[in-house]
Structure to design on (251 residues):
């Protein structure tokens, strides 16, 4: 049995007091749910606030990105060890917004993954096709290229530590969710690729999250699919009630 994960990707939202309020609210609700791993991923500037708010509860802290070098003259960047030092256990890598606006590639995703794993952070690596790619029938090809570009040649024991998030780009922040059948199809394909590349044990254990306009109303049906092990939630993670309802659906 894979323990489901519900991760909140706050993106570039919230100030200090809102973050404090949201994290404390979630500590009260999410912190009491058993059988679901809950991760909050605020922006760098809010890591300390959220860390303090959830400390001592079961809610985990994650960042939205990292840079692969350990330290040095890299103005504006944050390393894996800095994230650990701020209380993070997880880090999102290769989100489609990073690929779209900040030139992230499969090769740079891979370098970030390596540095996260070396530091002992658990990476949540994101993959997903654009609407154009889906419409021209190349979804499978695109996902396989992203996943193999990021993970191929990893040792099975390292691959086993990674969380994967399938986020169709056309569903992110648009209110358009993939149907459970559509999402399941891609999740199955990812798990098959993991089995072929790293063996059945790794494939059976790896958690594959769905992301893209997941809301309280659509969460249960999506997460009931056999290969969907939780969600990476953007918009709906910014409200205590919505995020809590999604966590309850995962359980
Ligand atoms: P959304 O974002 O839930 O707002 O669509 C998901 C994500 O980008 O991780």
């Amino acid at each position: 049995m894979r323990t489901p994960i519900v991760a909140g990707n706050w993106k570039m939202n919230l100030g200090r007091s809102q973050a404090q309020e949201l994290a404390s609210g979630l500590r009260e609700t999410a912190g009491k749910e058993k059988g679901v791993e809950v991760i909050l991923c605020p922006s760098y500037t809010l890591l300390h606030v959220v860390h303090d708010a959830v400390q001592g509860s079961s809610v985990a802290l994650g960042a939205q990105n990292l840079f692969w070098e350990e330290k040095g003259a890299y103005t504006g960047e944050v390393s894996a060890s800095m994230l650990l030092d701020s209380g993070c256990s997880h880090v999102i890598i290769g989100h489609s917004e990073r690929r779209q606006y900040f030139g992230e590639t499969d090769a740079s995703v891979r370098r970030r993954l390596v540095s996260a794993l070396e530091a002992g952070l658990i990476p949540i690596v994101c993959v997903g096709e654009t609407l154009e790619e889906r419409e021209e029938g190349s979804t499978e090809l695109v996902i396989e290229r992203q996943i193999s570009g990021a993970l191929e040649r990893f040792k099975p024991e390292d691959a086993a530590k990674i969380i994967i998030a399938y986020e169709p780009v056309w569903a992110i922040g648009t209110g358009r969710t993939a149907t459970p059948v559509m999402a399941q199809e891609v999740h199955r394909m990812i798990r098959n690729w993991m089995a072929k590349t790293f063996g059945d044990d790794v494939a059976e254990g790896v958690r594959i999250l769905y992301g893209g306009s997941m809301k309280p109303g659509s969460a249960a049906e999506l997460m009931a699919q056999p290969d969907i092990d939780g969600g990476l939630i953007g918009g709906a993670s910014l409200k205590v009630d919505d995020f809590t309802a999604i966590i309850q659906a995962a359980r």
About this structure: The first helix runs from residue 16 to 29. The longest strand covers residues 122-127. Residues 9, 167, 172-173, 211-214, 232-236 surround 2-phosphoglycolic acid (CB under 6 Å).
